[in-house]
Structure formats: C-alpha cells, structure tokens
Amino acid sequence: MEQFLQQVINGISLGSIYALMALGYTMVYGIIKLINFAHGDVYMIGAYVGYFCMTNLRLGFFPSLLISMLVCAILGVAIEKIAYKPLRNATRIAVLITAIGVSLFIEYGTMYIASPNPRSYPRLTGFMAKSYQVGGLTFSAQQILIIIITVVLMILLQLIVKKTRIGKAMRAVSLDRDAAQLMGISVDNTISFTFLLGSALAGAAGILVGIYYNSINPLMGMMPGLRAFVAAVFGGIGIIPGAMIGGYFIGLVEVMVSGYVNSMFRDAVVFAILIVILIVKPSGLLGKETREKV
Amino acid sequence: MLEITNLHVHFGVIHAIKGISLTVNDGEIVTLIGANGAGKTTTLRTISGLKKPSEGTIFFDGRDITSLSAQERVKLGISQVPEGRRVFSSMTVLENLELGAYLRKDRDGIAKDLDMVFERFPILAERRKQQAGTLSGGEQQMLVMGRALMSRPKLLCLDEPSMGLAPLLVQEIFDIIKDINEKGTTVLLVEQNASMALQIAHRAYVMETGRITLSGTGSELMQSEEIKKAYLGG
C-alpha cells in the first residue's frame, strides 16, 4: 500500500508536467484545429533556457522559471507567425506537415548550437534539495514544487480564460471564428495570444522536468510531447479541464506501468490508451459528441 | 450611409456576385430578397468584411471601407447578425452579450445598453446565466440580435432572422426589427420571407443568381406582378 501511494505521488508529479504540456496542445487545437507537433520542442527549449539561466547566469530557480516561460512564449508566437499564419487558409494536412518540419528544425537547430550531448541540471540547494517523510512516504522538494507550480499556473490559466477580455475572445474564436470576427475580435491577435499562453506553460514544464530528471537533451521533447498529446486527446482535445485530467492520468499510468509491470511497456500502454479512446470515444473524456451538420 | 458600387465576389472560379450596386440611406430599412443561392448572404459577408470582393467598392458614411478588416468595420458601426443564429454555445447569455460590446471601452455605456437589451428581450435577462446553446431557436435569435446591438451599431445587417422560427415568433422578430429601426438604427435585412420583409422595408432589392434584378420601395415591389408570382406565392 505504501509503495502504491508513493507511486501515486510520483505519478502526480510527472502528470503535472504532462498536464502543463497538454494544455498547450489542447488550446492551440481548440483555436486553429492544429496538432502543434513543435510543442514538445518548445518544452525542450524551456528546459535549455532554464539550464542556461541556472548554470551560466547563476540565477535562482524562480527567476529562471520566469525567463524560461517568457522565452518560450516569444518562441511560440514567432513559430505561429512565421510558420502557421501564412497557411491560415491552407489544408490542415499542409499545416500539420509544417508543424513536423518546425519540430525537426528546432530539434536539430538546438543540436547544432548546444551540441547533441545531454547536460545535467545543476543541483538545487537549500530547502529545494530536501525531501520530507510523511508516514512511510517520501516527498522530494522538487515534487512538491512541481505540483504547487502546476496548480498555480492552472489556476492562473483558468482565470485568464474565464475572466479576462482576451480569454473570452479565445473562447469565442474557438467556438465560431466568423461570429467572433463580427464582434470585432481580431482572430490573428487571439491566435497569437493562445500560442503565447500554451508555450509559456510548455516552458514551465521544461524547466520543471529539468530539475526533476536532471538530464536534458535536444530530443527530450519528442516522447513527452507525444504523451502529452495523448493526454489532451484522452481528456477531449480542445477542452482545457480535459487536458489537466488527461495529463495526470497519463502520468499515473506511466508510473504504475513502470512500477508494477515493466518500464519498457509504459509507452506501449500509453499509445494503446490512445487507440482505445479513438475507437470508443474519439471526443475524449469530457468531449461532447458533435454531430456533423448536413 | 452604405453605398456599394459594382461589387464582384468570387469563390475560386465561381462568380457568386456579378456586379451589384446598392444603397442604404440613413434611417432606412432596406431589404434584400431572393431565392436560396442568389448571393444574399455573400453580399452581407462582404459588407461586414468576412469575404473580400474581387472588384467594386463599399463606402460607409462617406468612407471607402473596401479594404478594411472586419474588426475595423465593427468599430465604424457595422454590426452583422449572421445566418443560422451563431451564438457562442458554451458561453452564457451574459458573456455572449458582453462579447457584442468587445470593442467598446465605456463601461457605463455598456451597462446601460445591457439594460436596454434586457428590457427589449426580457427572456434574456431571465436566462443570463444559462449557456447560450441551451436556449430555444427564438431565444437564440433574440440573443444574436441583442449581441449585435451591444456594439451600438449605426447599421445593423440581419441575415435571415426568421429562418426556422414559428410564425408567431417571426412576427415578433419583425416587430422588434421595426422598433430598432424607429429608435434610430439603420437596417439592412436579408430575407427569404419576402412578404414579411417587404411589409416593414422602406426600400427593397431583389437578387437573382448574383445580380440585382429589381428594386423599388417596399410597397411598389409588393404590388409587382413578378414579385407576387416568384416570391409571394401568387
């Protein structure tokens, strides 16, 4: 039982990172119906920026977190403006292929600049290096940090989406782009803002995974990116709370499979889940069945 | 107020609007009637900036708006109620109305207009916290009209407001349009329900396959034999 609870804690920590990434997938999909395959690479850049801030600039964790989020936000907006915006009226497959191209460009561009070798994150010091025993369970300070930061960011995101003017514009554009334009909403600005939010969250996820696993490399975004994508589909792509639930779910599944079955099977199970969802309920856990209009 | 000259619109190789010209004067209700596929909705979408014309000009209040974005046109005072009651379904009635005032900054004015909309459509006040997608067809039509009024438009363009509504509701919607116009908003009304539209319109245009084939005052067209035959059922 103790071992199980310990796995739950590990799963929630890892799931937090997937949830942060899944939010970016789901928001971008909601607004332009694109699976942004470069999203995992924005997360990788977030990890590198955090590494750079903490080692080269010797900044603390929190300033590094903010800088990572900021740099990734700018990167996300730039990707949208340069790569996706010119294709606004192109077929969806054209944009999808472009997204894969952007992904490869960022991965191998980073390899060229920062070398393909993995780097290890600096050790955290002070209270952040401690771990806490409660009952028979161990909470590392990193896990607590990851969970708290994720929850704070999710609450902020919900406030932005539900309460602010731009958040309402985001929802309006994702529900009905033409009608939103008739309200005077600028679709381009709203899409940029969506990339900004999603990419900032990916940046946060990147630096959090850096302190959690210690090792980063230019291809680190590929598999987590795909798992976060599965998380978004599991919760119902386009639905923000769905991405949160999906992220935690995939995190737990991964940890449980690694812990009780065999860690080699974890991705097989994650993608089996994807296949099952697509067969049983393609709209996801929170998705509504939409009938095609005739 | 609105002056369209020699407007052409293409969808790829399809020539949907073939050189129409029409005018809407201050304070009028002008209706554009015609069969399905005549190009009425395309004309409205071109006026509101959702569709770019391939040729021709659109002037609004003496200003050339042909190349302006939809957003800028809303700012100038053109508001469109799209066809098929496009409410933001998973947002509340209140949020829908607030989005209608998206470009306005005058909080007091917005609050006042919100009261005005609730007064005109009391059912919306009752359902303000409800998701717009759960409203009935008639209520959704009222919501999109209220939403369009929230931008305080000079010109209100309505696309098929009577579509799919019960006759009693249609009458109510047309009474409301008339009232909105009497309170000072110019109206451009696209309708398939020609008899209702002609009754409240000052002037009317008839569209057929991308061209305007007839125009005149509402009552003139109601008397016209051609119109009677084609659109008024005898």
What are the salient characteristics of this protein?
A: mainly alpha, two-stranded antiparallel sheet, 11 helices, 4% strand, globular, B: 234 residues, alpha/beta, Rossmann fold, 6-stranded mixed β-sheet, 10 helices
What does this structure look like?
The complex is a heterodimer of chains A (294) and B (234). Chain A has 294 residues and is mostly helical. Chain A has one domain. Chain A has eleven helices and four strands, in the order H-H-H-H-E-E-E-H-H-H-H-E-H-H-H. Chain A has a two-stranded antiparallel sheet. In chain A, a hairpin with a 2-residue loop joins strand 2 (131-134) and strand 3 (137-140). In chain A, helix 2 (39-55) runs antiparallel to helix 3 (61-84), helix 9 (222-235) packs parallel to helix 11 and helix 10 (240-261) packs across helix 11. Chain B is α/β, with parallel strands linked by helices and 234 residues long. Chain B has one domain (2-231): Rossmann fold (3-Layer(aba) Sandwich). In chain B, strand 7, helix 7 (167-182) and strand 8 form a beta-alpha-beta unit. In chain B, helix 3 (93-100) runs parallel beside helix 6. The two termini of chain B are 34 Å apart. At the A-B interface, helix 6 and helix 7 of A face helix 2 and helix 3 of B.
Summary?
The complex is a heterodimer of chains A (about 290) and B (about 230). Chain A is mainly alpha-helical. Chain A has helices at about 1-30, 40-55, 60-85, 90-115, 140-165, 165-175, 175-180, 185-215, 220-235, 240-260, 265-280, and strands at about 120, 130-135, 135-140, 215.
Layout of helices and strands:
The complex is a heterodimer of chains A (294) and B (234).
Chain A: H1 2-32, H2 39-55, H3 61-84, H4 92-114, E1 119-120, E2 131-134, E3 137-140, H5 141-163, H6 165-175, H7 177-182, H8 187-213, E4 215-216, H9 222-235, H10 240-261, H11 266-280
Antiparallel strand pairs in A: 1-4, 2-3
Chain B: E1 2-11, E2 14-24, E3 29-34, H1 40-48, E4 55-60, E5 63-64, H2 70-76, E6 78-81, H3 93-100, H4 107-120, H5 122-126, H6 137-149, E7 155-159, H7 167-182, E8 186-191, H8 194-200, E9 203-208, E10 211-217, H9 218-223, H10 225-231
Parallel strand pairs in B: 3-8, 3-9, 6-7, 7-8
Antiparallel strand pairs in B: 1-2, 1-4, 4-5, 9-10
Helix pairs in contact in B: 3-6
